[in-house]
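ok trying again, last paste got cut off:
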Amino acid sequence: MTTIAYITPNFTANAVRFIESLTSLYDVRLVVISQEPVELLPSWQQSRIFISREVPDVFDKWTLIKTLTDLQKITGPFHRILGATEQLQVPMAEARLAVGIPGMNTETALNFRDKARMKMLFNENKIPCARHALTHDLESALEFARKCPYPVVAKPVAGAGSQSTYRVSNDEEMLAAFSSLGHAVADGVIIEEFIQGEEFSLDTFMLNGKILGQTINHYYPTPLEAMTNPWIQWRVMLRKEHNGRAFDDIRKAGKKALDVLGMKTGLAHMEWFRRKDGSIAISEIAARPPGAQFTTLISRACDFDAIRAWARLMIYDEPVTTEIKYSSGAAYLRGQGHGCVSRVEGLDIVRSRYADIITDIRIPKPGQEKSASYEGEGYIILRHPDSKVVESALKDIVETVRVVLA
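nice, full thing came through this time. structure:
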C-alpha cells in the first residue's frame, strides 16, 4: 500500500472533493491532518481514511513535522504529502525535508509563495510582468506611485487570490490600504502597476519539468474589479478556441516562468493579463491546483476528473491528457448588501432554460452567511461545444438569478 498524507486546515467543500478523489484510489492508504475533527466529514468518507489527526495549526511546520514523525511509527514511510491550500505549500515543503519525503522543496515553494521573490526572478529572467516594487512602509509606496502613476495595486507578499488586494487611486487610498493590511506590512507589500486589459488564468499540468497539458480561463471581469464592486456577478469562461495559436505567447512565457521558479511535477495556477496593446504580463503563479471551481471547469471541458488526474500525477507520476472537447463556464451567485441568504430568485427560470447544459450547481442556502469572496454564495457551471452558447447563457444567468440577503 502507498501511504499518502493529505493536509487541509478545514473540511470545506473543496477539501472534501480532494479527499474523495484520494480515497477512490484502491491502493492508497490515506492519512488526513486537519484543524477540524474528522467527524465533520461524511461517514462513508471517514470509513475510507486510514488515520486522521486533528492539530491546532496545520500551517506551523513544527506541528506538521512532529505529527508526521509520530504517524510514521504507525504507518511506515510516507510516499507523498499533499495539500491544495496556498498557505500550506511552504510548511509542507519544510516538513518533507525534515521527514525525508519526496516532493517540492522549500526553495521552490518559497519562489511561488513569496510574490516579491517571484517578481525578482521574473525580472532577472526577462519574463513579462507588471512594474512593481517591494515596500515596507507608506513612504516608499508613495515614492513608487510617483514613478508609476496611479492607479496601482497594493497586496501582501504572501497573499492568496484577490483578498487583501487593493486598487489604489491616490495617496489617501494608499494610506487606507496600508492601514487595512496591518501587520502584513512588516513582511512586505508589493506595489505594482494596475494593468488595463483582460485577465486570464493558465493552468498547467507538469511531470518532471515537461508540460502535459494546459487550459486557459477568461475572467469577466478581473477578480480585483469584482472585489471592488460588490454588485458585480463574476463569470469565468474556458473556451475551446483558447487552445489555438493566438495564445502561444503566454504558453511560452508561462513555461519559462515555471522553469525559473523550479516547478517539476504538479498542477500550477497562473494568473496573467493581456494589455489593450496585445502585450502580456504575468501577475503571479501558485504551485497548487486552482480554486474557485476551476478544476470543475477543466473537468467538464476536457471530459475527465481533473482532481483525480492531479492525485494520480502526484502519487504515481501518471501523465495527464487535457484534450479540450467542450467550452465550459461558471456564473458565481453573489448576494447584494449585508446579512445572510434569505432566498434565491430566478433560479427556476434559468434551470428550465439551460437544463441541458448545466453540469454542476450549488444553490445558496437560506441562512448562509454572505461570502467575503467575489465567488459569492453559490455557482452554476455549464458546458457546450459552442462557446457562444455558454457565453450567452452565463450572461443571462447573472442577469436573472438574484441572491437576496436579509
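cool. Residues 219 and 236 are 5 Å apart (CA to CA). The first strand starts at residue 2 and ends at 8.
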